[in-house]
Design goal:
Layout (H helix, E strand, L loop, with lengths): L4 E2 L2 E2 L2 E4 L3 E2 L8 E4 L7 E4 L3 H4 L1 E9 L15 E4 L6 E6 L5 E7 L1 E4 L8 E7 L3 E6 L6 E4 L1
Parallel strand pairs: 3-5, 4-6, 5-7, 6-8, 9-13
Antiparallel strand pairs: 1-2, 7-12, 8-11, 9-10, 11-14, 12-13
Length: 144
């Protein structure tokens, strides 16, 4: 189902360029991620228990075409709820390499991530499930 348009902009698409704490009310939205600052930042998820069953978010790298998310190492965008081992991650990179981690702490866009790379998250109220794809090797980072 399409989201309604409010004020001339889709209410379901949000730009993010700095630290953000996600809320239940953000469920179902798509977040267009950029990093124009001089450092990376964190996107903080609610814990699965606080989020509840069915909460989902999608993050898409929206950097300039032909560029990377950031010019410098360490300027990554990290997505986490601050807990350990409560995220199940599966992602594919540009060489069709599949990475699986059933006890991850966080997932991130590496500074080398390119436009269109994405991370989708869903919770069943107990665990965060993350699915991602990157157009470059190492464009998605997983911390355990």
């Amino acid at each position: 189902m399409a989201r309604p348009f409010l004020g001339g902009t889709s209410a379901g698409v949000v730009s993010v360029d700095a630290a953000k704490t996600m809320a239940k009310s953000d469920t179902g939205k798509t977040f267009m991620v950029t990093d124009t600052g001089s450092a990376g930042y964190a996107i903080t998820l609610p814990t699965p228990a606080n989020a509840g069953v069915g909460i989902c978010y999608k993050f898409i790298n929206n950097c300039t075409a032909g560029a990377t998310l950031s010019n410098s190492g360490g300027e990554d965008v990290v997505i986490s709820d601050g807990q350990s081992d409560l995220m199940v991650v599966h992602y594919v990179d540009h060489d069709s390499d599949v990475t699986d981690d059933d006890a991850a702490d966080s997932i991130a866009f590496d500074h080398t991530s390119v436009k269109g790379d994405y991370i989708e998250l869903f919770t069943d109220g107990t665990t965060w499930f993350a699915y991602a794809s990157s157009g470059v090797d190492g464009g998605i980072l997983v911390a355990t």
